[in-house]
Design brief:
alpha+beta; ten-stranded mixed β-sheet; nine-stranded antiparallel β-sheet; globular
């Protein structure tokens, strides 16, 4: 549960939030205005914390600071683990069998026949759990025995974490972890603020800020003041709600209301602050971290669920066999009750009843005793293959793939729907400032035309002429759009001199309207995260006109309105941003001479053009939230103006603009242009506030912020809503300054991976919070769709319209499908007498127009909440791709749940940030990408990878092989036991249904745990139906998993029926051949166990050769395990036959040597397996030759190609579809998101329902 951090000393907590922690509360903690409701925890009893009087705290019995994530103590570990194993249902079953086997007169086998294998499997399980728990205990000790400085006896002394108590005053230094939940008294910073890092708590790498109350700032680091300080805190009892802190702080005749803004949580680390002092409020299990530590609901694979049903079926089959045998025993006993040498003492009914228990013991291993142990071993090797796959290792970040839920390995081979995030998943989340629109003019484009002319593409068609509000797209029209692509990507930045105010261009005071001069003397330094290559922007910036004022104001907003934290080290300023977007925007302002230098709670400091120092008095900060979709700051400029600077989503900013904005329509066009070029957009606005209006509003705002949050008053959430309401009052009458265009580059290999998955039969859904234009562009560039796709766009603002449009599109598609089916039937009838022109049976699919559905979060709000969802899914199922834009994290999870519930397919969700956690946890399989938005997704996921392109290999190679191997394992393990124990059943017919065992005890014991176990494990570890290259060439192989070809009810019953058939052949042939013959030279016939050895030998050969028939990929390990198991069997029986002692209960003394003298034995070893497997071999031959499916054809192609390659004449002379990445056409100009492709993308066949 804890990960080591090389930066921290031993006395600090290397806490790593593993996947047994609930994340929803953490997300609310870091983003308190998220739409997810926060549960209100009722306070059972208030907590009273005495400061300076620890004896009172001891009396309250508050918990220690010692934690224990291990399940058991050192004393109880082994007994409790053993008990936990014994109470498992399958172990209860075998315990009953073992008990019965020790009852004289009941067990027909030895006492250890079942006990021995069971002890081996239970020991493996117990040892594994002990090792896991010891690891957790070791991690706990590493934390509990860390140290922190605690104020004791007038000084700070190093104290073990486990000895810290509620009420202790603790000092935490820079880069140290907080040992408990601490209320801040004072910090080393002048304004009593501190910063902390929460990545080990929630995965976020950005710094957060906390500030102590002004009443305790005087304490500082003064030992005398701390010694004399006494106080009392009354607060709520421990709760998992991270926003829930109610109470009061009484000290020195002062009264302070407690808020979460003064609370530092255990698991976070102090950063950029020398030290903080505070009082411990919650310790150990009472901390919010431990309160939120809970085991995530375990996921089970489809194969595992189906196997449980099969086990129940086999159990009832066993009961049926036992019942039938018991009834037959009762009948036989009644009919032969007078036979004197049988000595019956009870009636036939009683004898039959007693024999039921005998047969239960005799047939007990029809349910394999080593079943779960075998599965665990195979999954272990599968996990090792994934974790150590060099093809899934990302060298740049030193990140391999990681399996966190091994029991879903086989689920990777059955995925039908993939739900993917966009930013950081399909894209790199490496933001670059590429373009901006200021005052109606676009910068960063060579044309430098104003907004009335489209800069990059003919957007007027799709934007409806950019008239009106610009928010609507003309509906029900078929349009075509060509987006040109520049062949190069500019990685450098043209140098400009910000300090040179001389301009060789002739702007004549016309500002933005003047022509551009490529020989401008302005130069700017190379700045990371910025690639705006336009000298016109600098010319206009220094033109001293209205446009230059707008540009200057634009960059003031970018350099001031943000949550970036500057770090000054070695005289250099570096930034820690909450998101890559903010990082790019701050660097963009810096690159044009507006450098963000320092920030306090009272002011923001800039350096303009590298010379002029500016101080903006920070009056208020109105934080960003997913509901507000904007951030605002109110500052007093160096000239004394009170300005409100705001940046946010266009859907919000445009609603708050002042009337008669001159550049609003033009900016809307630019927003759509930027979106279609794959750029992320934000609107930048400002407004000047009248001082009297501001003062009146400020009083309301301060009143909202000062609402008392005590034990008996509304929650912090309600207070935040009131603050938001007041903030809305001042955020009005904006002047639109411009729009930013930030590029997020596409990851390597994304188009090829998506095409591979699509050809494999997997449906791709992209769920993103970005705008529609950007989402569509990413859809093209990533290969989710191309120019051949017909696009259906649904953007509705009322429920009635949403229902109407969904029903209309569903009806249209049903009619089209019926027409296509009729045309296809007519075509087939016309071609019945023609020769077959299709040489490839795999690719005989009618070409049709592919569909992509684009729907926004506003429409989904109506769709996901009631029965309309079925109509939405009906339309979505008709489409090849679905793109959901402007969706919230909650909507993402509801979409996944809706698909799971309605279609019942196997789903996979992949993402990289906290907003993807709910979606990842809702899907059957969750994949976390090690991106730049922290580790939340990885913590919550079942698997983690570093790049989206690795998803292809994870599913197509590891998923495909894991599914086939696990399917074969489960079917085979039941099959082989049926073969053996059906022989026992048949023998009962000829033994008077007495329950006499046919096989010797030790051979019975070794059958499941030695002879057949090792070959099966090796098979499931090494088996490959085709090699990796062939899988990539023919991704349609993956559809076998989607269709559950190798593991379903019919397939399982086939294996079981085959087991009965093989068991019948093995017994019947041997019985008919041996029972009345005289094979020995001394004239003696076969005795019981000699007959049993012959049958057993035939069974061993049958099941081993059956496994060989199923093997496609042979290695020396397979040969060694498979044939070696037979050798071990014969050697053991030879050795065992020489033992003539009752110490080991030998019943087969010299038996193998007797039967070895007979030619019958050797003939039976040849003919019995041959006859038994003749049906299998014949069926495989007929099936592959005359009724081949696509896997058979592909295997033959691989074999032929391998032979040709061995002869240095490699060629692919069979006409079958192979995987060759197409030239996926991508849009936009010089952006990596377009990579290399065609020069344009026609967006034809565009359907819009707006």
């Amino acid at each position: 549960m804890y990960s080591e951090d090389p930066e921290i000393p031993m006395n600090q907590e290397p806490f790593n939030n593993s996947n047994n922690v609930s994340f929803n509360n953490f997300n609310n903690f870091m983003n308190p205005n998220e739409e997810e409701p926060i549960e209100e925890n009722k306070t059972v009893a208030p907590r009273t914390v005495h400061i300076g009087n620890l004896e009172h705290n001891y009396k309250h019995g508050y918990g220690k600071n010692e934690i224990a994530t291990s399940r058991y103590s050192s004393i109880s570990r082994i007994p409790r683990i053993i008990v936990s194993q014994l109470i498992r249902l399958i172990n209860v079953y075998f315990i009953i069998i073992i008990v019965l086997s020790f009852i004289d007169g009941v067990s027909p086998t030895g006492k250890f026949t079942t006990l021995g294998p069971w002890l081996i499997t239970i020991t493996i399980s117990v040892l594994r759990e002990i090792i896991e728990d010891l690891k957790r205990q070791k991690q706990d000790e590493a934390v509990n025995y860390g140290t922190s400085e605690v104020f004791r006896n007038g000084q700070f002394v190093q104290t073990l974490w486990k000895d810290i108590r509620v009420g202790d005053i603790v000092k935490v230094r820079n880069r140290q972890y907080f040992p408990a939940d601490i209320y801040i008294f004072s910090t080393s910073e002048p304004e009593n603020v501190c910063w902390f890092e929460s990545k080990n708590l929630d995965g976020e790498t950005n710094l957060k800020q906390r500030q102590a109350t002004k009443e305790t700032i005087y304490l500082k680091d003064n030992a005398e003041l701390l010694s004399n300080f006494c106080g009392l805190i009354e607060c709520n009892s421990p709760t998992k709600d991270l926003l829930h802190l109610k109470g009061s702080f009484f000290f020195d005749d002062n009264y302070v209301i407690l808020t979460p803004k003064q609370l530092l949580l255990r698991g976070t680390k102090l950063r950029n602050t020398d030290w903080i002092n505070g009082v411990v409020m919650y310790t150990g299990v009472d901390t919010k971290l431990m309160q939120n530590t809970e085991k995530v609901k375990e996921k089970k694979s489809h194969i595992e669920d189906l196997t449980n049903h099969f086990i129940i079926f086999i159990f009832f089959l066993q009961i049926l066999l036992c019942g039938g045998s018991a009834i037959a025993n009762g009948v036989w006993s009644t009919n032969n009750h007078d036979v004197w040498y049988l000595s019956f003492t009870a009636s036939g009914i009683v004898e039959g009843g007693k024999s039921f228990l005998t047969f239960l013991v005799l047939y007990n291993n029809i349910i394999p005793i080593s079943f779960y142990a075998t599965i665990e071993v195979v999954r272990f090797f599968q996990t090792c293959f994934i974790n150590n796959d060099i093809e899934m290792y990302h060298e740049e970040t030193d990140t391999p793939a990681l399996v966190k839920t091994a029991n879903l390995n086989e689920e990777l081979g059955q995925i039908e729907y993939v739900f993917t995030d966009k930013t950081g998943t399909l894209t790199q989340n490496a933001m670059t400032f590429k373009k901006c629109s200021i005052g109606g003019y676009v910068y960063g484009d060579n044309s430098n035309t104003n907004g009335n002319n489209n800069n990059n593409n003919n957007m007027d068609d799709i934007n409806g002429g950019a008239s009106g509000s610009g928010n609507e797209i003309r509906s029900n029209e078929m349009m075509s759009l060509e987006i040109p692509i520049s062949p190069t990507y500019h990685t450098g930045i043209t140098n400009y001199d910000l300090n040179n105010n001389n301009n060789n261009s002739n702007n004549n005071g016309n500002g933005a309207g003047s022509s551009s001069n490529s020989n401008s003397n302005y130069s700017k330094p190379l700045i990371p995260f910025v690639d705006l290559n336009d000298d016109k922007l600098l010319e206009d910036l220094h033109a001293k006109n209205e446009q230059s004022r707008l540009i200057e104001e634009f960059f003031y907003v970018l350099s001031i309105c943000h949550s970036v934290i500057p770090l000054q080290e070695d005289g250099k300023v570096s930034y820690i941003a909450t998101s890559p977007d903010e990082n790019a925007l701050v660097f963009a302002a810096k690159s044009f001479g507006f450098e963000f230098i320092h920030k306090t709670t009272k002011a923001v400091y800039l350096k303009k053009n590298g010379v002029e120092d500016l101080k903006f008095e920070l009056l208020n900060v109105l934080d960003f939230s997913s509901e507000r979709k904007r951030m605002s700051v109110i500052v007093k400029t160096p000239t004394g103006r009170i300005m409100l600077y705001c940046k946010g989503a266009d859907s919000v900013i445009f609603d708050k603009l002042a009337p008669n904005q001159p550049n609003a329509d033009t900016s809307i066009t630019h927003i759509q242009d930027f979106g279609y070029q794959g750029l992320r957009t934000l609107c930048v606005a400002s407004t000047q506030l009248d001082e009297r209006v501001y003062q009146q509003w400020s009083q309301q705002y301060q009143a909202a912020c000062s609402l008392t949050i005590g034990l008996d008053v509304p929650s912090q959430l309600e207070k935040d809503k009131e603050i938001e309401r007041v903030a809305e009052l001042i955020e009005t009458d904006f002047q639109l300054l411009g729009v930013t265009g930030v590029e997020d580059k596409l990851q390597d290999g994304v188009p090829e991976t998506i095409q591979l998955l699509t050809e494999a039969g997997i449906k791709m859904w992209m769920l993103t919070g970005d705008g529609q234009e950007n989402a569509i562009n990413i859809g093209y560039s990533s290969g989710l769709m191309n120019e051949n796709y017909e696009m259906i766009i649904i953007n509705e603002r009322t429920k009635e319209n949403a229902i109407q449009e969904l029903n209309r599109h569903v009806s249209e598609q049903i009619i089209l499908q019926q027409e296509n089916n009729n045309d296809a039937n007519d075509s087939n009838n016309n071609n019945n007498n023609n020769s077959n022109d299709d040489d490839n049976p795999i690719t005989q699919n009618e070409e049709r127009n592919k569909l992509v559905l684009v729907i926004d979060g506003g429409t989904l709000k109506f769709v996901l909440d009631d029965a309309v969802g079925f109509t939405f899914l009906r339309l979505a199922k008709m489409c090849d791709t679905v793109i959901c834009c402007r969706v919230s994290p909650h909507q993402k999870s509801k979409i996944v749940k809706l698909v799971r519930k309605t279609f019942a397919p196997k789903t996979l969700a992949i993402g990289d940030g906290a907003n993807d956690v709910m979606m990842i946890q809702c899907a059957h399989v969750g994949i976390g990408i090690n991106g730049k938005e922290g580790n939340q997704a990885i913590y919550a996921a079942d698997y983690s990878i570093s790049q989206f392109q690795h998803l292809g290999r994870l599913l197509m190679v590891h998923g495909h092989h894991s599914y086939r191997r696990m399917s074969k394992l489960i079917c085979y393990i039941f099959y082989k036991n049926i073969v053996l124990y059906f022989c026992q059943f048949l023998f009962a017919i000829f033994s008077g249904w007495s329950g006499q065992t046919l096989f010797e005890t030790y051979n019975l014991t070794a059958y499941s745990v030695v002879y057949t176990l090792i070959p099966l494990i090796i098979y499931c570890v090494m088996e490959k139906d085709v090699n990796e290259r062939t899988i990539y060439q023919h991704p349609q192989l993956y559809k076998e998993g989607i269709q559950h070809k190798y593991f379903n009810h019919f397939t399982f019953l086939q294996w079981i029926a085959n087991g009965f058939y093989h068991g019948f052949v093995a017994f019947a042939l041997v019985y008919c051949t041996v029972v009345k013959s005289n094979p020995f030279t001394n004239g003696q016939t076969q005795e019981l166990y000699a007959f049993g050895i012959i049958v057993y030998s035939c069974v061993m050969l049958i099941v081993t050769l059956k496994l060989a028939l199923e093997t496609h990929h042979w290695t020396w390990i397979n040969h060694l395990a498979m044939w070696g198991s037979l050798v071990v069997f014969f050697i053991w029986n030879v050795i065992y036959a020489t033992i003539n002692t009752t110490a080991v209960g030998s019943n087969v003394y010299y038996a193998i040597f007797h039967i070895g003298e007979s030619a019958h034995y050797y003939l039976l070893l040849v003919f019995v397996p041959t006859l038994a497997l003749w049906r299998d071999f014949t069926w495989k031959y007929v099936y592959r030759t005359f009724l081949p499916d696509q896997s058979h054809i592909i295997q033959e192609i691989q074999r032929k190609n391998n032979n040709n390659a061995a002869n240095s004449k490699f060629k692919d002379d069979l006409d079958i579809k192979s995987y060759r990445p197409h030239n996926v056409k991508r849009s936009t100009s010089s952006y990596s998101i377009s990579q290399e492709g065609s020069n344009s993308i026609p967006l034809k066949n565009l359907k819009n329902s707006n």
